[in-house]
Amino acid sequence: MNVFSDFALGARLAFGAGRRRGLALLRTVFAAVGIGLAVAGLLLVFASFNGLEERLDRLAARTPVEAAAGEPAVGLLSAPSYFRERELTAVYLEPWHSDAPVPPGLGDVPAPGQAVVSPALADLLASQDGALLRPRFAELDIVGTIGVEGVAEPDELLYYVGDEGLRDAPSVVAVGGFGVPSAPLSLGPLVVVEFLAGAVLISPLLVLVASSSKLAGSEGERRLSAIRLVGAGAAQIRRIAAAETLVGVLLGMVLAVAFFFLGRPLVVAADLAGLTLYEDALVPPWQAVVAVALLTPAVAIGCALVGLRDVVVEPYGVVRHSEPIPRRGRWRILFVALGLSLFFPDVWAGVDGDSRLVGVFAAAGTFVLLIGVPVLLPWLAERLVRGLRGGPPSWQLGVRRLQMDVGTPARVVAGITVVLAAAVAIQTLVTPMSSPPPHESARASVVVSVGWENRVEELVRDVPGVEQVEPGHFVLDPADLDATERLRNAVAPLGRQAMVYRDADVDAQGNKLATLHIILGTACSFALLLSIGNLVVLASAQVWQRRRAFAALRAAGLPRGVLTRSLLWQNGIPVVVGVLVSSATGLGVAGLFARLLDVPVHVDWAVLTVYSVGAVIGVGVLTVAAVTALASVDREPSLRVE
Length: 642
What we know:
single chain, alpha+beta, four-stranded antiparallel beta sheet, 61% helix, elongated
C-alpha cells in the first residue's frame, strides 16, 4: 500500500462500511461535535480578548489631548457619577474657538443646556428602570445620541453637556484634539496575571480537543491491531490512524464555526462587572485563527499517535483483550517537575523578578501543570483501582472496567478536572488581590464649588433617607436603597457645581483586578459548562462503543439499574481522583504565582467547595447521558442485532 492508499483507508474507517457504517458515522459525529465545542471555545476566548482590545481602541480614540498654545480648543470637564452601581459619566464641553475639536461620535458640540447621550443611556431613560434617573436630566434638553464610534461599549452610560463659563472651573482641560495611541491590553505591574488568564483559559480547551480526538478508544485500537496483524507496517498504522482522526477534526472545525456564531451572542449578553462588548468586535485575530487551525489537528493527531504503542508493539494482545500493560509514572512525574521548575527562572536562569519574562515563564509553567492533571490522572486512577476487590455487582462491574481500561474514563473526565484546577488557581490568587478595602457604604459626600454650599443644604434638607452630619457629608439610610439616587437628583440642578460621591463608588472605580476577577470567574464557569457539554458527548459515545457487552449482560438478565450504577462508579472514581489532583494543582499554581507577585494566598474554601460540587454534578450529568444512551442500546431490536 502507498501513502495515499493508507490515508484513503483511514478516511473510509472514519465513515465505516457495511453494517458498521451507521456506528462508525455516529462515532465520527460524536468526535466532531466534541472537537467543534472545544475549538469554538478557543475562538471565543481569542475573540473576547480582541473585543477588549477594540474597546481600548475606542477609549483611546476619544481620549482628550491638551491643546498647545494658540491652538483651537474646547473646554472639557469630566464628572463621573453612578446610577444603581453603574458608572454614569457626564462630560461638560464649551467651545473656545469656532473651529474647536469635537469628540468622536458627535456632529458638533452641544449648545449650553443641551445634552447628547449614549444609546444605552437613551434606552435607560426611556425605560421603566430609568424612572429614578430621569429627574437628573430635567434641566437638560436631550438633542441626540452619541455615535457608535464614540461609545466604548454597548452598555456605557455617557453623555456630553454643552456648558459655558468653564474657563473659571477647577479641573477643566483645554483640549486641542481627541485620540491617543491605544495601549496594549495590560494591567501594568500586574501583567503576570494576564499570562495566568491566558494559560487557564486555553489549556482546558486543548485538553478537550485531545479527549475528543481519542473517542474511538479501545474499539479503534482493536480495529487497527487487526490491520496490523494482516501485514500492515508501523508507519502504515500511524498514517491510517492519522487520517481517521483528521476526518473527525475537519468536520469538528466546520461545526466550530457554527458553534462560534451561536456562542457569540451569549458572550455579548454576559455582564462582566459592568463591562460589555460589541458583537461585531468579537472576531478572533487572523493569527489566532491560523494558530487554532494548525494546532487543533496537530494536538488531535499527536494524541492519537501517542496511543498507538500497544497497537504497534502488541497487536495480538489488543485484539484478544489481554490485561493492559501498567502505565509508566516516571515521565509523568518529570512532566510535572518541569512545570514546577518554570516558576523559578530567577533561581536557575537569573531572570530579574520584575521582568516581563518572569510572566512568560510562569504562564508556561501554569500551562504545563494544568496539562499535567490529565497526564497524571490515568496513572493515579490505575494505581488506585488495581487493588480494589469485592463489593456489589455494580461496583465490581465499574471497577473491573477501570482495571481493564482506565484511560478511556479518565479521558472523559480530564476536561472537567483541568477546568477545576484552573478555577481554583484563579479564585485563590485573584480573590485577595481584588478585594477592596473596607468602607462605610452608608456615607456620602457632596463636593461643592465655592459659593454653592448653602444652596446644597437647601436642596438636600427634605430628601427622604438622607441626613446631614456635617457640611458636605451625609448619612444614608441603609434600608433605603434609593436614598443615594434621591440625593443625586436633589443636587442635579446645580450641574457640575455639586457632585455626589460614596465611599463604595470610590472603591469600585478603577478596580481593574476586581473586574478581572469577575471576567475570569465567568470564563471558568463558561469553560466548566463547555466541558460538561463536551463530556456528555464523550460519555454517550463510550456507551455506544460498549453496546455489545451491555447487550450481552442485559440478555443474560442483569438489571438495567446495576448497569446504571456501574456507569456511575466508572465515572465517579476518576472524578474523585481528579478533584483531589486538580485542587492540589490549582492551589500549587496559585502559591507559586503568589511568590512571584509577593502577595498573600487566601484559600476560599467556599468557592473550592462550589467548584468541587460542580464537578460532582457533572458526573451526574454524564451518568444521565450515558443512561439515556444505554436505554437505546438495550431495546429488544438492538439486543437482537448485537
